[in-house]
Amino acid sequence: VDHLLGIKYITKDDINLIFETATQFKEVINRPIKKVPSLRDITIANLFFENSTRTRLSFELAEKRLSADVVNFSAASSSVKKGETLIDTVNNILSMKVDMVVMRHPNPGAGIFLSKHINASIVNAGDGAHEHPTQALLDCFSIKEKLGEVNGKNVLIVGDILHSRVALSNILALNLLGAKVKVCGPKTLIPKYIESLGVSVETDLRKALQWADVANMLRVQNERMDISYFPSTREYAQQFGINKSLIESLDKELVVMHPGPINRGVEMTSDVADSENAIILNQVENGVAIRMAVIYLLASKIKQ
Ligand code: CP
Predict the structure, then answer these.
(1) Is the ipTM reported for this complex over the cut 0.85?
(2) Model confidence over 67-100: pLDDT tens digits?
(3) pLDDT tens column, 6-47
(4) Any known ligand binding at 165?
(5) For the chain, which domains are there?
(6) Is 108 annotated as a binding residue?
(7) Which amino acid positions bind carbamoyl phosphate, per UniProt (predicted)?
(8) Of the residues 3, 132, 180, 258, which is catalytic?
(9) 206 is annotated as an active-site residue
(10) Fewer CB within 10 A of the end CB, N or C, for the chain?
(11) Cα dihedral: 199, 130, 137, 35 (round 10)
């Protein structure tokens, strides 16, 4: 069975095939009738053991636009709360003849673990601080759409790199596609191994932005910290947040991205989030086409 467990497990050719397929599906989702009958005989379970707005809605819309049957599961209202294991929960769901599982889970590697114990295709919708592959695919697709290509572009990732699955998946995908990657954030939130991934580090945001074609602004993931890594939200915003006057003072073109959920006034002010520089809602729109492509390509293997 084929899966999408992380960018770590796919190739540049896989990404290009996903992008070509997503480009075709983007035309579909912009039509008055937004559906294609491609997956009429496929059933998909969306298992969300951790909160989500964008990813969950985006996967559900992608599945419905491919005409798949969809069931949704949220840990908060399930028997997981009564002590059932992940494998038992998923095997029970699969007994109801489900072909594919889209899973978000707080534990890094949850999808990899599950893939060794069940006979269904798994798509990782975020596993702890490990990977969020469809986010990285939609981010790179959005950069390509905006700038024509990813190869050779300077992409800056700002924020809590240490706790971010979005950062790791983006770095791996950007590396495969030939972008140069730099990270910027508080020293305590940049992991020691980052340079081994071919990524440079700059703790001065202004200098980093001078270098960048694209700035992908990430959230500080307080929910993944046992202790406070940085003195205060205000201090973080002052040193690592962007506002319109900072962007204007750079006197250059800058594409601003954010995977959401955004904290206005922390990662960026509203005058940036709502400006022409920002492609945040394009990222969300592209997310549906990218997820349609991923599901369609995996489902075509199930059907064989
Ligand atoms: N970007 C992202 O994963 O958002 P959600 O947590 O709302 O799904």
Answers:
(1) yes
(2) 999 999 888 777 777 888 889 988 998 898 999 9
(3) 999 999 999 999 999 999 999 999 999 999 999 999 999 999
(4) yes
(5) 7-132+284-303 (3.40.50.1370), 133-283 (3.40.50.1370)
(6) no
(7) 54-55, 104, 132, 135, 260-261
(8) 132
(9) no
(10) C
(11) -170
